[in-house]
Structure formats: structure tokens, C-alpha cells
Amino acid sequence: MLLVGNGTLITRNADAPFYADGAVAIDGRTIAAVGALDDLRAAYPQAEFIDAKGGVIMPAFINMHEHIYSAMARGMSVKGYNPHGFLDILDGMWWTLDRNLDHESTWLSAMVTYIDCIKNGVTTIFDHHASFGKIRGSLFRIEDAAKQAGIRSCLCYEISDRDGQDKCDAAIQENVDFINHARADDSDMIAGMMGMHASFTLSDRTLETCASVLPPDTGYHIHVAEGIEDLYDCLEQHGKRIIDRLMDFDMLGRQTMCAHCIYINDHEMEVLKHTDTMVVHNPESNMGNACGCPPTMELYHKGILTGLGTDGYTHDMTESYKVANILHKHHLHNAQAAWSEVPDMLFHNNAVMANRYFKQELGVLRAGAAADVIVLDYNPITPMDETNCNGHILFGMTGRSVTTTIAAGKVLMRDRVLTGLDEEKILSDSRQCAQKLWNRINSGR
Ligand SMILES: [Zn+2]
Fold first, then answer.
1. Which of 116, 156, 159, 397 could form a disulfide with 315 if both were Cys (CB 3.0 to 4.6 A apart)?
2. Domain membership flag for residue 425
3. Do both 18 and 162 map to the same domain?
4. Distance from the CA of 421 to the center of ligand 1, in angstroms?
5. What are the tens digits of pLDDT across the range 388-430?
6. Would strands 56-59 and 48-51 be described as parallel, antiparallel, or unpaired?
7. Per residue in 152-171, pLDDT tens?
8. Domain Amidohydrolase-related: where (predicted)?
9. Minimal CA–CA distance to 176: which of 159, 188, 201, 199?
10. 283 C-alpha vs ligand 1 centroid, how far in Å?
């Protein structure tokens, strides 16, 4: 047993949200009890003690939209890359990168991303993978890294017609194989979805095939109307809007997650709501690509289940929190906007969404829930309680405030030292691999 204590405890359990001197008792992969430190010390005298050193103890973060494959792009310079618009960014940077990924670079991309997740207190991710250089088996390589790192992962491969029929078929098969593999795994640490790039790179034939081979109890993870080009293409090629197109292929529903949804109208929002489809917002990515600001506050207030991701831009969920908070204030010219909606997306909706794929309750510290717990180095300069702790997180903490990360009861980082991974070797291998990859990309241009 483990006992995490000697800190301020934020539980996200409405019945007992806050303990000034709290503790979490962990038995195996599950939380056994939450309460005052003195009470839990008395109840579990034999438990190994993890000292929060006066910091903050809270549920680990969940990232609903990640791109492990983007890792090797950090600092990369592609010869001749001078994008004019979002499609140039995709083709010149991201598709160029993923066409050159092999299994080794995919695996290392996953390992370094998982290391960053652990350091930022993220223990559950929903990843959207592409490696058109080596498709078959790629999700299994990421799963291998996920298991070594100890991060709960829902994986999918980005199906697209952009590289021809054979690669598209291979991508569909990779999803089906991985989903079936994950369904047979009872660890509750791995899951699979059917990944699709975006409407404008998917033919009707491909959508039909995907719908016909989708295994039961799963859905799609797809980019929707991230750029306005995606909407124009759908209107021109198919005479309908994107959400309607997905609806016509029976692809919406409570297991499906649409990333971005920047250019959707009221009718499409009604369809998302009616089908209980999930939406994930990635503020930094949308701003960085100059794609526009999604109607996230409207989606949230209509009751569409909306969560928060990073789109690979960062692995620190507090960055998404901070930027979403100011993006919607700025966009709506309303300094009152987003105060409550964004933390609700991050601390509540992300867990509800993740629990559509993982069985054990996530995102809350209470008996029976998954033992995904983090400790942050934070000493408040003003009083902190359950009514204002989100303000303290927003303005006082970052991902790198996290000192200890526990996932499914396993200590992945303790006092800022990774417990199960050789960080120096992985990073050194990653740098070498990235240099080779960059050389490969630029020698062909
Ligand atoms: Zn994305």
C-alpha cells in the first residue's frame, strides 16, 4: 500500500472536495481511501509514505488529443518550407515528417512524449498517430512504449487517402487489428479507436469501408473543420457540411470524438448534441496554425461533451488551460468568459470522455477510483480552498510544478526522478534518431 500525504488535497469529488492536510491511500491500482492525513495514517500504519512536502495532491491530468508522431519535429527545419495557409503547414511539415517515420522513430517519439507526460503529471492520453513511412505495426510499437512508461493510452492510426489506396487500406487494417488487440487486453491501460485524418482527405469509399469494418463498442477519432478548407472541400465535393457527412456514414455517437470543430454551424452543433458525440478543443494548436477560434463556449453551453487536448503542441495540460482561458476571453471580447467552463472541461469532462474507453473511474480521488495521483510543488501566496483552487492552478502552477506522478498505483516519478525509465539514454537515442530523420527528409528535397 501507498499513502500520499502531507499536502493540500484537491479531490474533484463534490462530496468532499478539499482537505487542508489530506492524504490518499492506494491499494494496488485503486484508491482505497481519501481523507485527513492523521485518520489515514492511523488506518494504514504499514503503508509506504510518499511525502507531498506541503505541496498539492490532486488527480493526474488527462489529455484528450495528442500526437506522439510530432515529437521529432521539435527544432526541425525542412528545406524550402514556407507555408501559406494551413494546407501548406500540413503537407510541408506534418505529412513530410510522418512519411519518413519508421518503427524506431515512432517508438522513440512515443517514449520521449511519455516522459514529458509523466513530468507534466499526465497519466492518460488519447493519441492520434500517423507514420505513413511504416504503417503496419506502428500502434503496437506505441503500445510497447506506453506499457514501459506506465501511461494509460487510447491509440488510433490516422486513415487518409492522401498517400494512395494501399496505404489507406493498411491504415484501416492497423486500426482494426489494434482495436481488437486492445479489446482483448484486460489491463484497462490500453484502448483503441478508429483514427481518421479529416473529411478533405477521406473519400466516400474509404468512409464506407471504415464503417463496415468498425469493431463494436468503439468509435472514431477525427479532425473536423480544423481549417476552413476542410469545410469548403466538403461543400464542393459532397454538397454537405462535415458533421452531416459523418452522420450520413453513421460515424457519430458517444464513442466518437471530433477534434477542433472550428467551422461548424448551429445545425451541426445540434447533431453533435443529439448523437452525444465528443468534441476536443486544442487552443494553442488552433492559434499556432492560425486556423481560427472554435465556438467552444457555445458547444459547452449547448451541453455538447467538450474536453481539452494539446494536439501535440505541448504535453502540459496547464498550458491548454491557461491559453483556452484567455483565447475565449479575447475572441468573445468578454473578460468574464471561460472562467468556469475551461476548468470544467479539463477536470471533469476529460474524465467523463476518457471513461467512455477506460473502465475504472478517472479524474477523481475517491475510494474505488483509479490511483492516478500527482503531487505539485506549490505553496500558495493567498488563501486556497475548494472555491478558488482552480484560480491557484491557473495562475500559480504549471506542468513542471509536478514532482510526483502515480498512474494506476505505480509511481512513475518520485521527487522529479523517473523511477522506471533510463531518461538520459532515451533522450540521447531520440536526438540521434531525429538527426537521421531530418537528414533523410532534407536529402530528398
Ligand atoms: Zn490533431
1. 116
2. no
3. no
4. 27
5. 999 999 999 999 999 999 999 999 999 999 999 999 999 999 9
6. unpaired
7. 999 999 999 999 999 999 99
8. 56-411
9. 159
10. 11
